[in-house]
Amino acid sequence: MKTKFLIVLYIIFAVALSQSCSKFEPVAPDEGEILDGPVEGLSFDQNRQFLAGDVAFNDEIFTSQTGLGSVFVATSCGSCHAGDGKGTPFTTLTRFGQIDTTGNQFLHLGGPQLQNRALPGFTPEQLPQGATFSKFTPPANTGLGFLELVSDADILAMADPTDANGDGISGVPNYNYLPSFIQPFTSAIPQGGKYIHRFGKKASAYNLLHQTVNAYNQDIGITSTFNPKDVYSGNNIDPEISDQTIHNVVFYLQTLKVPIQRNSNDAEVIKGKNLFTQIQCSSCHTPMLKTGVSNIAPLSNKIFFPYTDLLLHDMGSGLDDGYTEGSAMTYEWRTPPLWGLGLSPKSQGGEYFLMHDGRAKSIEEAIQLHSGEALQSKNNFNQLSQENKNALIKFLKSL
């Protein structure tokens, strides 16, 4: 009897202790306040692959024993994309060597990416004399699987290379050749053997496999069966990462959830959203897109709101870095998605580092750097009353 009493007493004590300790546990963040996490509706096996990709992306830190370098930019994927958000000036990449559509003339000298760090005993790369270059701040990762599934037909429907409608905006896709390890989408619409690319500041990567393989190789110096070229020696070497890990990371990126808009019913946010359209920001930052058919059911035939047209636009001489990729001009940049914009400071040390190279320290400053095809929208913004400007900025921060 005494033993039973002691057991009951122990259970009561354990429950009480658990409840008291729970008061000191941090409150779980609201889903709208974080960027990472899987899309809803994955199967058990898909969730398991998502978690495997999450570990490879965020937890695996490479060393010289596991293939790092000999020259590199980062030691892990997650170090450039904290919480799957934007990077900072400390993680900004340097791309160099191409000045026009004839291709990169500095590939034999380390192009297209500068590996600015090195293992002991090795020398980091230096920019070759005469090479133009640009700084690229790492983008947020969320929702990429949805963007991958926008059809070529839909992208071309948003393009207007001759400005036929006379609105001053003439977005074009970036056409480029595919690497040998990439199979084009069944719905692809090629042009002269080239295919529409959509990822990266200049839309230079075709899909998330292309982007992932390039990142492992150029950012961390990791070879794979897809790209066995060692960035230091220039020779082909044995793979330093498995195909399965590559596929897990690709699946992780494909199935990250879309950013959730906050305060969407707020009157000022609604007002700002209407102003966004009125001053023609939505001409490039297209609010709504849709996916095609996917073998990942939660991504298939979905409407989503990324605020991009995935096209290249002339952004004016102030943003012309003299460097390009693919068929893009030096002054052309792919419209960046605006979803998740309001959460950018969470991964950027509490500050904003916007535009392709992080030079804008606020949303207002980013708007002022718009020119070229975006000049009229910028002028329209500048003509708004301060009250309306505040509403527009509040809307953008809600994304």
Report the sheet-strand fraction.
5-15%
Low-pLDDT residue spans: 1-18
Number of helices: 11
User: How much is the radius of gyration in Å?
Assistant: 23 Å
The counted number of beta strands is: 10
Instruction: Write the element-wise H/E pattern from the N-terminal end onward.
Output: HHEEEEHHEEHHHEEEEHHHH
- End-to-end distance: 62 Å
Descriptive tags:
11 helices, two-stranded antiparallel ribbon, single chain, 29% helix, mainly alpha, 399 residues, disordered N terminus
Describe the structure.
The protein is mostly helical and 399 residues long. It has one domain (32-260, 311-362). It has eleven helices and ten strands. The chain has helices spanning 2-22, 44-59, 144-148, 152-158, 208-220, 243-254, 267-278, 344-347, 363-368, 375-382, 386-398, and strands spanning 71-72, 93-96, 117-118, 133-136, 174-176, 195-197, 289-290, 303-304, 312-314, 332-334. A two-stranded antiparallel ribbon has the order 1-3. Mean pLDDT is 93; it is low at 1-18.
Quick overview:
By secondary structure, this protein is mainly α.
Break the fold down into its secondary structure elements and pairings.
Blueprint: H1 2-22, H2 44-59, E1 71-72, E2 93-96, E3 117-118, E4 133-136, H3 144-148, H4 152-158, E5 174-176, E6 195-197, H5 208-220, H6 243-254, H7 267-278, E7 289-290, E8 303-304, E9 312-314, E10 332-334, H8 344-347, H9 363-368, H10 375-382, H11 386-398
